[in-house]
Amino acid sequence: MTSRTTHGARLLIACPDQPGIVAAVSQLLFDVGANIVHSDQHTTAPSGGTFYMRLAFELGHMDQRVPELTTRLEPLATRFAMDWSLTRIGRPKRVAIFVSREDHCLLELLWRQQSGDLDADIAMVVSNHADLRGIVEPRGIPFHHTPMTADTKAEAEAQQLALMEGNVDLVVLARYMQILSADFIAAWPNRVINIHHGLLPAFVGASPYRQAHARGVKLIGATAHYVTPQLDAGPIIEQDTERVDHHHGVDELRRIGRYVERVVLARAVQWHVEDRVLVDGERTVVFPS
Question: What b/e readout covers 100-138, taking b as 16+ CB neighbours within 10 angstroms?
């Protein structure tokens, strides 16, 4: 995790690959007096591919220098057809955690944030049930209960969007057992992370671990991905597995699955808030720390 600093920033770049990109960006930062402290880059193909870059740098009086940096970056962005973003390291991203009744992913995120392992501010927890209020509110985090039925889904989502407007940078679905509408997703492109068991698509529907047990699976896994209108088909950020065998019963498979889910989701959230994830079509580029 990148330590917080009042002078640090990250620059993310995506553009068609061509010679001179790194030199031009480095020269710009040198000209304004910035010191590059970390740099990662990736190209999908040396000729005709997409170039991705993540730069961390230090620059004194950053608050006052951001407008200058933006002005200097704009012609460079035009020259190289860049999509780019500039974020302050000293300003942690604000996260809204959506949950239903299961608490394991929520607790993992709360613990990591409290211990300093997750550099984010948990701005609120939103739930379609009130079960987990007692876990959240004693920590001083606002808990918003937004009951939802098929008939009230649009109204509940409008309430959720209003709660988050101007207050949140990332939405995390920590075992939120509702399907987001296309309008909700469109309002938060590549800023909603979901977790699901890695048994999909082999064991869809109800009781996936019971189905897995009946088929004698050898691996239990989980997948964290950005949410798109295509259910569970968004760009994958992180995955992991745990080996199991015929000795494990359904309850043990479920317990192992919960462990993998919470670890995988926490990694994905951490990488996002550290600006390490860039979306490449249906895939992601995840830079190391």
Answer: bebbebbebbbebbeeeebbbebbbbbbbeeebeebbee
Active-site residues, by number, are 232
Do both 43 and 147 map to the same domain?
Answer: no
- Structure tokens of 243? 């080996």
Q: How are strands ordered across the β-sheet holding 8-16?
A: 35-43, 50-58, 8-16, 83-88
Domain extent for 267: 93-286
CATH at 22:
3.30.70.260
Please give the chain's pLDDT, 289 residues, in tens: 444 566 899 999 999 999 999 999 999 999 999 999 999 999 999 888 999 999 999 999 888 899 999 999 999 999 999 999 999 988 999 999 999 999 999 999 999 999 999 999 999 999 999 999 999 999 999 999 999 999 999 999 999 999 999 999 999 999 999 999 999 999 999 999 999 988 766 777 788 888 888 889 899 899 999 999 988 889 999 999 999 999 999 999 999 999 999 999 999 999 999 999 999 999 999 998 7
DSSP lists the bridge partners of residue 238 as 224
**Alpha-carbon distance 276 to 242, whole Å?**
25
Structure tokens, 183: 């309008």
Vertex 113 angle, CA 109 and 119, to 5°? 115
Distances (CA, A) of 43 to 19, 261, 283: 12, 30, 13
